[in-house]
UniProtKB/TrEMBL annotation:
It comes from the Eukaryota. One of its GO terms (molecular function) is mannosyl-oligosaccharide 1,2-alpha-mannosidase activity. Pathway: Protein modification; protein glycosylation. Pfam families: Glyco_hydro_47. This is alpha-1,2-Mannosidase. Keywords: Calcium, Disulfide bond, Glycosidase, Hydrolase, Metal-binding.
Length: 177
C-alpha cells in the first residue's frame, strides 16, 4: 500500500470519527484534491498558526519591511495631490521656483513610469533599484495629475483662481459673482 493511500485511510478514519459539517467535508475534499497535485514529503509540516497582529505590531512590521514613515504606502499610482499643491503654491505666490519643482517632478514621474502603452503605477517607491511597474494606470493620472502639470505652465488667466474653483476631481467651476 502506498504512503498516499495510507494517509488517505488515516484521513478517512479521522473523518468518520468526527462530526464534520458539509463545509468541513468540502474543505477536506479540496485538500485531498490538492494533495494529488504533487508529492508531499513525510517531513512536510503545516505552517505555524498566524496570530493576528495588534495595530502597533502591524505598523512596526510595515515600517521595518517598507522603510517608509507611518501614514504612507510604498505604492505610487500617480495621484494628483502633490502636483496640485505645487500648482496652487505657484498660482498664489507667483514664485517660479514652484514651476521648477513641478518640472523636476514631471521629469521624474515620466522617467519612472513610462511604458510602451502609457504610464504605470510604481510598486515600491522606497526601492533604490529600477522601479517595479504595476500593470495599471489609474484614470486620475490622465484626468487630474496631468491637468495640474499642464496648468502649472499656463498663464495665470487660464483657470484663474479669482474666477474658478477646482473640485476634488480637478474640474473647474466658475465662481459665483
Amino acid at each position: 500500500m502506498s504512503r498516499q493511500s495510507q494517509q488517505r485511510k488515516k484521513l478517512k478514519k479521522l473523518h468518520d470519527n468526527l462530526d464534520l459539517n458539509s463545509n468541513a467535508a468540502s474543505r477536506q475534499d479540496t485538500t485531498e484534491d490538492s494533495w494529488d497535485q504533487k508529492p508531499i514529503s513525510d517531513l512536510w509540516l503545516p505552517p505555524e498558526p498566524v496570530k493576528p497582529l495588534s495595530h502597533e505590531e502591524y505598523i512596526q512590521q510595515r515600517l521595518e519591511t517598507e522603510h517608509i514613515p507611518p501614514g504612507f504606502v510604498s505604492l505610487n499610482d500617480k495621484r494628483p495631490e502633490a502636483i496640485e499643491s505645487v500648482w496652487y503654491m505657484y498660482r498664489i505666490t507667483g514664485d517660479p521656483s514652484w514651476q521648477e519643482k513641478g518640472w523636476r517632478m514631471f521629469e521624474a514621474v515620466i522617467k519612472a513610469t513610462q511604458t510602451e502603452d502609457g504610464h504605470s503605477a510604481i510598486h515600491d517607491v522606497s526601492s533604490t533599484e529600477d522601479p517595479v511597474k504595476e500593470d495599471s494606470m489609474e484614470s486620475f493620472w490622465l484626468a487630474e495629475t496631468l491637468k495640474y502639470f499642464y496648468l502649472l505652465f499656463t498663464t495665470p488667466d487660464v483657470i484663474s483662481l479669482d474666477e474658478w474653483v477646482l473640485n476634488t476631481e480637478a474640474h473647474p467651476f466658475r465662481r459665483p459673482t
